[in-house]
Amino acid sequence: MTWGLDGMWEVGWYVGSWGNWVALAGFPKKFNDIINHTLKKVIFLCLKGKKGVFMAASRLPINVRLPGAYFDVRSLPRPIGGIGSRGTVAIMADLPWGDTEGFFNLPGRVFLTNKSLPIVGMTAVDFEENKQLRLALAGCQNVLVLRANVGGDRACGSVGSVAFEAWHFGAAGNNIRPVITKNALDEFVVSIFWGNTLIDRQTVSEIAQLQDVEKVVKISYPVNAELTVGTTTLEGGTDGTVDFTAKLPDFFKQLEYHVWEWDVAAFAFAAGTPERALCSQFMSRLNEEYQLDQQCVVIGDGANNRSVIGVEDALEINNEVLSLDDMVFLTAGIQAGLELGESATNLSIDGAARLIPEHTRDELRDANERGVIVHTRRSDRSIAVLRDINSFVSLTPDFNYEWTKNMVVRTINNIKKDIHRIWETSFKGKVHNTIEGRATLFTEIHGLLLQYQAIPAIQNHTADRLTVELGERSDQVIIRISVIEVVDVMEELDVVARITGGRPTISMTMEGALTA
């Protein structure tokens, strides 16, 4: 390449070092500082006059790899998606402590320890205060909670010049006890107790080193204050008022924000109330918007919605009489905790001693026809769920008997969630919409359905029931599953017997569910 008198860079080729190339081509030396000579491809820009016409040439390296060992080790192609977990119930609760802005998460294993104190101000052994949480977690592993309390006061107290204020309002804050002592090194030790449980301990030499204890207590002091030894118990904390109706719009909002994180929601509103109607409408809209089949539990019948499960009787469990409101939390927790392939039909309720009210056969039959969950006394005298059904009763050709069964709804909803998760985390915006890309997606979905079949939550799935196609647009993919055969449990047994005289002979054939 040479510099022409007409102001044009003429494109040429030289095999050699970058420095020699520049020297022979007549490039200004500053280009050495701009372009790294170790690049595999170097682009040279050529200008023509003042018009800014660009031309380019590329130089390929020679012998770029030194003698040695080079490795390319990867996983064999296989499905990376699996079945998602279940076990989370979403509730509104009357609590003496906790965040009031949005959901907070309480795992059941944490509720069994003192680690739950900064979260909800109590543990599982505080039976008088934790009824709603205790019932919800009796059947599942995790609860998303929206605190329904408003307008309460924070507990406060002071030791010398140091003021302590509870992080949240609520009567549980009255159990917080700051203690300031000195150690052998003449340092101050500031301990925060919740009752007799140590929550936090700070060792400081001066007051400016004190820090708030997050989610427990805020610490403040005036300018030039000094630490003094002492102790106090915070007081003045109140729970405020509880208004589930006023909190309902916020509950709806949080359920939508966290739609992929919960399995069943609890709405303790009775049939015929405006709130119950709103809950049913919300669930229908939510599932239509997100193409899911999330479910909730309410009191009574009449919703006629596969997303709404109604309860209509109460129980006495371990000498504690549960109200219908309590039964909503218990049932929601049980429904959320059921694994794929499990049904609540004939599920025995631990500790249940009495049905309120007791049911006749006609009453049980009527409840079943109206689509509400009721309980019955089994032949062994234990109390169990009669049938795991929802409130959907108006069958259509598109939505028939199977959709009245919660086991079917749970399976289909979980498949939808899993396909969405696999699509969003591994394919959306990442994989090209080519034959090869769609084949990879096919492998993922087929593998997922085989995992469901292994539970078994579905049956008879084969690859020819699944297709993954290019849609009408270049970025659209269509998954078609011709048939999903959802597995149900045995619920009805018909025994047909014929008895003859003389030598006793009994001929039996099994019909109904047993022949499936």
Description:
With 516 residues, the chain is of the alpha+beta class. The protein folds into four domains: 1-73, no CATH class; 88-146 and 242-385, Ribosomal Protein S8, Chain: A, domain 1 (2-Layer Sandwich); 156-231, Immunoglobulin-like, CATH 2.60.40.4290; 432-516, no CATH class. The protein is built from eleven helices and 29 strands. The protein has helices at 18-25, 31-34, 108-111, 117-120, 131-136, 244-257, 274-290, 324-337, 361-370, 406-427, 435-454; strands spanning 42-43, 58-59, 88-93, 104-107, 142-147, 149-150, 156-159, 162-166, 176-182, 188-194, 197-204, 217-220, 230-231, 241-242, 264-266, 295-299, 308-311, 314-317, 320-321, 352-356, 372-373, 375-377, 383-385, 458-459, 466-470, 477-481, 485-486, 493-499, 506-512. Strands 4-5-3-15-16-17-21 form a seven-stranded mixed β-sheet. Strand 9 (176-182) and strand 10 form a beta hairpin. Helix 6 (244-257) packs parallel to helix 7 and helix 10 (406-427) runs antiparallel to helix 11. It is globular. The N and C termini lie far apart (83 Å). The model is unreliable at 1-60 and 511-516 (pLDDT under 50).
**DSSP helical segment count:** 11
Q: CATH first level of the largest domain: which class?
A: Alpha Beta
**Major sheet attributes:** 7 strands, mixed
Strand order of the largest sheet: 4-5-3-15-16-17-21
What is the CATH fold-level name of the largest domain?
A: Ribosomal Protein S8, Chain: A, domain 1
Using the 3D structure, state the CATH architecture of the largest domain.
2-Layer Sandwich
Query: Runs with pLDDT <50, length 5+?
Result: 1-60, 511-516
Strand content: 15-25%
The figure for the number of domains is 4
Question: What structural class do you assign from the helix and strand content?
Answer: alpha+beta
- What is the number of strand segments? 29
The overall pLDDT average reads 87
- What distance separates the N and C termini? 83 Å
Q: Which word captures the global form? A: globular
Helix fraction? 10-25%
Radius of gyration: 34 Å
